[in-house]
Amino acid sequence: MATSLEGTPGRTEAAARTSPLWSAPPLLILAASFFYPLSLIAAQAFTARDGSLSLAMARAVLASGRFQDAFVRTIVIAAAATAGCLAVGFVMALVVAFFPFRGSALVARLIDTFIALPTFLVALALTFLYGSAGLLNEFLMAAMKLSLPPIDFLYSAWGVILAEVTVYTPFVMRPLLAAFSLVETAQIEIAASLGAGFFRIVRQIILPAALPALLAGGSLCLLLTVNEFGIVLFIGAKGVTTLPLLVYDKAIQEFDYTTACVIALVNIVLSIALYFCYRGALGRLGGSGARLV
């Protein structure tokens, strides 16, 4: 005799969990915290001075030299900082993973703490070290009897790149260490016993295993550096204006909210595109490695 399952507690709970009503609260929160503010920015960006919808202001902003310069500088600085993070992170992860030394685990943990620090603290620390009145310049001026500080790279794009590399290198090291933990040490030992040198082992065994992690970490660093604001503002690099800083200048200092909204929309589109690149790269890791990124 067939037994009906309708009305049983298990079926009722399953039906409740799959009810469309359960998706309403998170959708409302998302709409209030993201989509509504985004719609206000978009409306302001495409509103003419007389209140009508128009693309004229957006076209004017995108064609302006100041916006184009900020866009190019944002991409160049982010790409350079990401390349630095990849290079420094790969070397440091290689040392920690395959050349363990006393305290290497502690060093890895200390590097991870940079993730929790506000970015402006790193910029402040670099100012104390390499600034015009920093420790290094004061020492060199006293030792060499100089009247002007000999090191002045900090207040330039190079200073911004150095600060970003310092802050975001751990975002490359974490997935790399996860990937390196999956490399079979027997492969390395066999390759070494057959006469393979260090660089050949890195190129043919370690690097192929690290490529997905490099791609994921590099995509994340690129996403973060494109949106970096605190470092650029605190360093105060002369003539260096990125998209986030330009939004701040237009909205807070010049009260030009329409221009600020247009630039913010460009920054949002760029960030979303980079985020999907990051998620695609992260998907290639899979398994436990992906959870450690």
Walkthrough of the structure:
Residues 1-7 and 287-293 have low confidence and may be disordered. Helix 11 packs antiparallel against helix 14. The protein has one domain: Orthogonal Bundle (MetI-like fold), CATH 1.10.3720. It is 74% helix and 0% strand. The longest helix has 34 residues, at 65-98. With 293 residues, it is mostly helical. It has helices at residues 9-17, 24-45, 56-63, 65-98, 104-112, 119-130, 135-144, 157-168, 170-180, 185-193, 198-226, 230-235, 243-253, 257-285, 287-291.
Write the layout of secondary structure elements.
Blueprint lengths: L8 H9 L6 H22 L10 H8 L1 H34 L5 H9 L6 H12 L4 H10 L12 H12 L1 H11 L4 H9 L4 H29 L3 H6 L7 H11 L3 H29 L1 H5 L2
Q: Could you provide a short overview of the structure?
A:
The protein has 15 helices and no strands. It has helices at 9-17, 24-45, 56-63, 65-98, 104-112, 119-130, 135-144, 157-168, 170-180, 185-193, 198-226, 230-235, 243-253, 257-285, 287-291. Helix 4 packs parallel to helix 9 (170-180), helix 9 crosses helix 11 (198-226) and helix 11 (198-226) packs antiparallel against helix 14 (257-285).
